[in-house]
Amino acid sequence: MTRRHFCKRYHKLMLRLCTDSVTPPPLRLVGILLLSTCILYPVRRVVAQETPLLSGGVGFFARSNGGDSTFVPVISPLLAAPLGNSLLIESRATILESFFPKGGGQSGYDHTHFSGAEFMQIDYLATSHVTIVGGLFLTPFGTYNERLSPIWIGNFQDGPIILPIGTGTGSGLGGMVRGSAISTESYSVAYAAYFSANSTNENFPATRSTGGRVQVYFPKLRLEFGASYTRSLAAVETNSSGFDVWWEPPHSELKVRSEYAHSAHAQGYWIEMDYRLSRFGGPESVIGRVEPLFRWQQFFRNSADPTDGMPATDTNRAEFGLDYRLPHEVRILTSYGRQFTPLGDSNIWRAGIVYRFLFPAWKGKS
Amino acid sequence: MKKRSLSWLRCMLMVAILWMAWGWGGSGLAQSSSPRPAKKATIQNSQASDGAKKFEENCSRCHNAPEGFSPRISGTIVRHMRVRASLSKKDSEAILKFLNP
C-alpha cells in the first residue's frame, strides 16, 4: 500500500467518523481535528518542474582608466520558458547607463544609455545529441562569449581584448545546430555550427557570417581543447580562427583558462587563473569566499581597422583581481591592471558589486 | 455516569487504535519494503552522485551552483544548461537527479 492510498483511506475513515450519526460526540471532535490537520498540512512531494524562470544579475561597476572614472549601473535579466517537452524559449538582455567625465575642460559627468538583447532564441531539442536553435544567439566562437559573458559569472568586469575576433557584435541572427556529439566517462565532444544574416537593428545587431566550434573535453583530467572558426560574409569576406584550452586540475580550486584568436587585422591571446581559497575553512568561511585572480593579455595589431572595436596599437595588459563571494548570491569584484602600449602605459582600476537573482516567473503545478 | 465513562473509554481506544494504525502503517510500510528501499536508495544515491560528478565536470567549471532555488524551476534550469553547455540528454538527466534527488 502506498502512502497516497493509505492517506486516502485514512481520510475516508476520518470523514465517516465525523459524519456518522452513531459516532459519540467526543470521538467526532477528534475525527474533525485529525481531518482538519490532514487538510491543512497535506503531504506534498517536491518534484522537479519546468516552470518559466527569471534570472540574471544587477550590478554597479566603477572603472578608472588612466585617471578617467566611469560608473556603470547595469541590469541583465534572463528569461527561460520551456514549451512542451522539446522546446525552450530563452532570452538575455543588458540595460545599462554609463556615467563618464564630460572632458574638454568641462566639469561634471555626461551619460549614455544602452539596452539590447544578447540572445533571444528558440531551442528545439531534436535528439539526445542535436539541438536546433533559431533567432538571435550568442556567436559560438571561443569560450568567453558563451560562457563567461554574463555579469554574474565573469571574474573580471571586462571581457578580453580579443573578444570581438570571431564574435563581431557578439550575437548572430539566424540558425544554429549544436549539441554533444559523444559523451563518455573518459571524454566528450561538443559542437556548434551556425549561419547568421546581417541585421542593422540597434537592438539585434548581427553581421552576415557563418562558422562553428568543436571542443573535446577530458573529464578525468578536467582538460578541454576547443577550436573555433568564423567566416565573415560581409562586403569583404574574412576568416577568423581561434583555439582555447581550459584546465581545472582535479581536487583543486585552481582554474586556468586561455584562448588565442586570429583575424585578418589582429591577433592575440589571454590567459586567466583563479584560485578560490576554500581550502581554508571551506567555501563558506570568511577566507574561503576570497578568490584571487590573474589575467595576462597580449594583443597584436596587424593592420588598421577602426570598426573592429579593438585597440589601434599593440597592447599588453596584466590584471590582478580579488573577488569576494558574499552570501545570498552577492559578489564583489575588484581588480588592478597595468596596460602597456607604444603610446604610453596606464593603470586600470575596477571595482564592482553584482547580485545574481533566480526565481520562478510563473506558478508551478500543484 | 457509567455510560459516559464507557464512551470516553471507547473514544480513547479508537484514538489509540488510529494512532497505532498510523504508526504500524508507517513502520509496516517500512518493514515490508525495507530491502527494496535500501536498494532503491543505493540506486538513487549513485544517480545523485553521478549527477554531482556531472555537475562538477560541466557546470562548476564556469560558475558556482546557485545557493538555492525552487524545485519548480529545476527542470527549466537543466534544460537551459543543456543548450548552453551542450550537454547530452543523459548528462542533463543525471544533473536533474542531483538537483532534485
Describe it.
The complex is a heterodimer of chains A (366) and B (101). Chain A contains three helices and 16 strands. By secondary structure, chain A is mostly beta strands. The two termini of chain A are 23 Å apart. Chain B is built from four helices and no strands. Helix content of chain B is 77%, strand content 0%. By secondary structure, chain B is mainly α. About 23% of the residues of chain B have low confidence. Chain B is elongated and about 70 Å long.
CATH class of the largest domain in chain A: Mainly Beta
Give the strand tally of chain B: 0
The major pleated sheet of chain B works out as: none
The CATH superfamily of the largest domain in chain A is identified as Porin
What is the count of distinct domains of chain A?
Answer: 2
Helix segment count of chain B?
4
Gross morphology of chain B is elongated
Strand content of chain B: under 5%
> How large a portion of the residues of chain A is in β-strands, by DSSP E?
over 45%
Mean pLDDT of chain A: 88
**Share of helix among residues of chain A?**
10-25%
Could you list the spans of chain B in which at least 5 consecutive residues all have pLDDT below 50?
19-41
Oligomer: heterodimer
Measured on Cα atoms, how large is the radius of gyration of chain B?
24 Å
Q: What is the straight-line distance between the termini of chain A?
A: 23 Å
| CATH fold-level topology of the largest domain in chain A | Porin
